[in-house]
Write a structure and sequence with these properties.
This protein has 247 residues and is α/β, with parallel strands linked by helices. It contains 8 helices and 13 strands. α1 packs parallel to α8.
C-alpha cells in the first residue's frame, strides 16, 4: 500500500469502465485532469483492450502526444501512428478458439490487424493476422468450463474486460509488458508509472506499476491488487485519482 506520493512521470489509463463513462464518453473532469497532468510534465497513455480503430479518436480528443497501447498490449503505437511493436496469435490457436466458441454456443469477437469481427468470422482465417479473441459468456458454469479448457495452454494469455467474458492474447502479451517497453523508450521505470483500471486485463499493470489504482467499479480481484481505490467511472474516478496523486 502506497502511503506517500511517488514521483509519477507517466499515467496509463484503461478505457472501458475506467476513463470512459457508461455513455462511452470522457467526462469534462477527466479531460481537464489529464490536461493539467500533462501541463505539469506528466505523460499520459491509453492502455486498452480496444482495437486502435476504436480508441485513436479518444486519444486525439485528449491531444495525447505519447504512445498508445491497444488490444491488451498486442500492439504499441506512437502518437504519429507508427507501429512500434505487434504480437499475434498463431493460426492453429485461432482455429481452435473458433471451434471452442461454436461448441459452447457463446458469442465471440476477434481482432485482426485490420478490424474487429463480431459473431461472423471470415472463412479464410489464414488470410488475416489475429491479435486477440474475446468470448462473451452468459453462464458462470460455461465460463468455468471454458477457462478449464484454456488455462493449461502455454501459448495463451488469459484475462477479461468484464466478469462474464474471457479475453485471449498470445502468451506474455499484457498491458504491463507493453508499459515496460514504453518505459524503456521514455527512459523511465515502472516505479514512475501510475496505472488505473477495472478488469483482469488491467491487473498486471496495476500490480507492477509504482502506483496501481483500481476504479470503484472494478472487479474485486483488481481492487485487492491495487494500492488505492478511486471513485467509479461514472463519478470521474480518473480525475479524482490524478488530482489526489499527481496534481
Amino acid at each position: 500500500m502506497v502511503v506517500s506520493k511517488p514521483n509519477i512521470k507517466l499515467i496509463a489509463l484503461d478505457m472501458d469502465g475506467t476513463l470512459l463513462n457508461s455513455d462511452d464518453e470522457i467526462s469534462q473532469a477527466n479531460s481537464q485532469a489529464i490536461t493539467e497532468a500533462r501541463n505539469k510534465g506528466v505523460e499520459v497513455v491509453l492502455s486498452t483492450g480496444r482495437h486502435r480503430s476504436s480508441c485513436a479518436a479518444h486519444a486525439a480528443s485528449l491531444n495525447l502526444s505519447s504512445y498508445l497501447i491497444t488490444v491488451n498490449g498486442s500492439e504499441i503505437w506512437s502518437s504519429e501512428g507508427e507501429l512500434i511493436e505487434r504480437q499475434s496469435l498463431d493460426i492453429e490457436t485461432i482455429k481452435a478458439l473458433v471451434d471452442l466458441n461454436e461448441r459452447y454456443g457463446t458469442s465471440a469477437w476477434m481482432a485482426s490487424t485490420e478490424k474487429v469481427f463480431r459473431g461472423e468470422f471470415p472463412a479464410d482465417l489464414e488470410g488475416y493476422e489475429w491479435l486477440k479473441v474475446g468470448i462473451d459468456i452468459d453462464s458462470e458454469e460455461v465460463k468455468e468450463r471454458i477457462l478449464e479448457e484454456l488455462q493449461d495452454n502455454e501459448l495463451l494469455e488469459l484475462s477479461n474486460s468484464h466478469p462474464m467474458n474471457v479475453e485471449i492474447n498470445a502468451v506474455g502479451i499484457n498491458k504491463a509488458r507493453a508499459l515496460e517497453k514504453i518505459c524503456g523508450l521514455m527512459n523511465i521505470t515502472l516505479a514512475e508509472v501510475m496505472t488505473v483500471g477495472d478488469s483482469l486485463n488491467d491487473i498486471k499493470m496495476i500490480q507492477e506499476a509504482g502506483l496501481g489504482i483500481a476504479m470503484g467499479n472494478a472487479q474485486e480481484e483488481v481492487k485487492q491488487a491495487a494500492d488505492w481505490v478511486t471513485a467509479e467511472n461514472n463519478q470521474d474516478g480518473v480525475a479524482k485519482a490524478i488530482k489526489h496523486w499527481v496534481l
